[in-house]
């Protein structure tokens, strides 16, 4: 860890891995639904489990993009594709944060919203700095 952007990459990576694992657990039927999809179901119904599995795959993609943008993984480095993908994740995480703020779920408002907004900020910093 030699630069501030390395720390931003680390923070974003940890957050993304945690969210990917969380979505995998939801997809597997674990009872953590109070913190996802509006908090209406403790155990998600099958259609939302599929959505969680897709979300988990999206988070895995985000992890690669963040590590590549931070220069810590992959040959892509500061490629145009990685930079554009980073900005796409800024938008995704930002919109997710806004949706979580508007949620009826206390868990989404108090935990998921700040995490999503932190990830949006980390991705923006990485896209601008490297």
What is the topological layout?
Blueprint: H1 4-27, H2 46-69, H3 80-102, H4 106-129
Helix pairs in contact: 1-2, 1-4, 2-3, 3-4
Task: Describe the 3D structure.
It is built from 4 helices and no strands. With 130 residues, it is mainly α.
Label this structure with key terms.
single chain, 0% strand, 130 residues
Distance, first to last CA: 15 Å
Overall structural class, as computed from helix and strand content, comes to: mainly alpha
What is the percent of helical residues? over 70%
Total beta strands? 0
Overall 3D form: elongated
Q: Evaluate the radius of gyration.
A: 15 Å
Strand content: under 5%
Taking the sheet with the most strands, its summary is: none
Count of helix runs = 4
Q: Low-confidence segments, ≥5 residues, pLDDT <50?
A: none
* Secondary-structure element pattern, one letter each: HHHH
Arithmetic mean pLDDT: 93
């Amino acid at each position: 860890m030699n630069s501030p952007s390395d720390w931003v990459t680390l923070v974003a990576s940890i957050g993304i891995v945690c969210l990917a694992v969380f979505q995998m657990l939801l997809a597997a039927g674990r009872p953590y639904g109070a913190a996802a999809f509006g908090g209406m179901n403790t155990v998600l119904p099958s259609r939302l489990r599929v959505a969680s599995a897709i979300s988990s795959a999206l988070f895995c993609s985000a992890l690669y993009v963040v590590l590549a943008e931070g220069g810590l993984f992959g040959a892509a480095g500061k490629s145009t594709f990685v930079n554009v993908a980073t900005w796409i994740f800024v938008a995704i995480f930002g919109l997710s944060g806004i949706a979580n703020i508007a949620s009826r779920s206390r868990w989404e408002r108090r935990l998921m919203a700040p995490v999503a907004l932190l990830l949006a900020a980390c991705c923006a910093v990485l896209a601008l700095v490297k």
